[in-house]
Amino acid sequence: MDFANAPKIELHCHLDGSLRPDSVLDLLRKNKLEEGLDESNIDKALKISGDCDSLVTYLEKFDLPLRVMQDKESLERLTYEVFEDAYKENVVYLELRFAPVLHTRKGLTERDAIEAVIGGMERAKKDLDIEGNIIICCMKNMSEEAAIKTIKAGYPYLNKGLVGIDLAGKEDEGFAYKFVEAIGLARDMGYRVTIHAGEAGSGQNVLDAIRILGAERIGHGTNLYQSEEAYRLVKENNVHLEVCPTSNLQTKAVDLLEKHPAIYYYRDGLSISINTDNRTVSNTSLDHELEAIGPLLAIDRPAYMKIYERAVDASFADQDTKDKLIDKVRRII
């Protein structure tokens, strides 16, 4: 199948892991922060290499991008560029996620950061034929009080470009218990909920994310198979899995793409989508992800239609947008 010309949906993409290297270098120079970085080595500084041994090592690649993401102008620009890059490979809907708390080092409030990112997205939606929404992340390594602060900061923008909440970062066992009050508050406010779980952690974490936190979608969910109860819950309740194949290889969540558990999940009828996770850190694109795992899933046009429609259904978009996205793929495919 020709994935390049097919309309695509992306539900799991991190802003700070998807920046253009030349833009990062430009902003480093403007802020006099380049410290020996130039055109010859900026790619290596931002992209993961073959010696990555874990999710923790993978996450170290986010330190440099965050240095240039501390003012509204840069955040707006970089968000626009991620949407533009997605548009260039025929992504018609993108849910972009980021953690506002990580952009407050130089005086921005979390609300400032959210405004800037939504602004960049809205400008891209106006200029380009792409739809999108923003998901804000709370960090698992921070306190529940910090998560509640982020959730409250985002509330004025809920359903005005911001639609969801996530828990991201290093995955400890049992992390869900730490955030019961925070995610409960988010649900009460009207946030849609997706949770990173079962990536570096166990299938039990997936079960906890659904049962304790009310997750509608699971980021990664690679180790779902480890918990029979979690697997049954995902299947019976149509909980959507945001699968990120290349990232999972790099973080050692899986050893071989041919053995990725998502292949079994898909064949067993679970709702999955294929995503980049981090376009720059993983040195990937949605076309690349689909071309890599597509043959393993035996994706032909009817199968692609089903994956696309499931992704649209699982998205946090409003119904009008969902209808437009379904119409778009039916007209082309």
From TrEMBL:
The keyword Metal-binding applies. One of its GO terms (biological process) is inosine biosynthetic process. This is adenosine deaminase. It comes from the Bacteria. Belongs to the metallo-dependent hydrolases superfamily. Adenosine and AMP deaminases family. Signal peptide: none annotated. Residues 7-330 form the Adenosine deaminase domain. Keywords: Hydrolase, Metal-binding, Zinc. It is an enzyme of class 3 (hydrolase). One of its GO terms (cellular component) is cytosol. Its cofactor is Zn(2+). InterPro entries: A_deaminase_dom (IPR001365), Ado/ade_deaminase (IPR006330), Metal_Hydrolase (IPR032466). GO terms for molecular function: adenosine deaminase activity; metal ion binding. The keyword DNA-binding does not apply. Its EC number is 3.5.4.4.
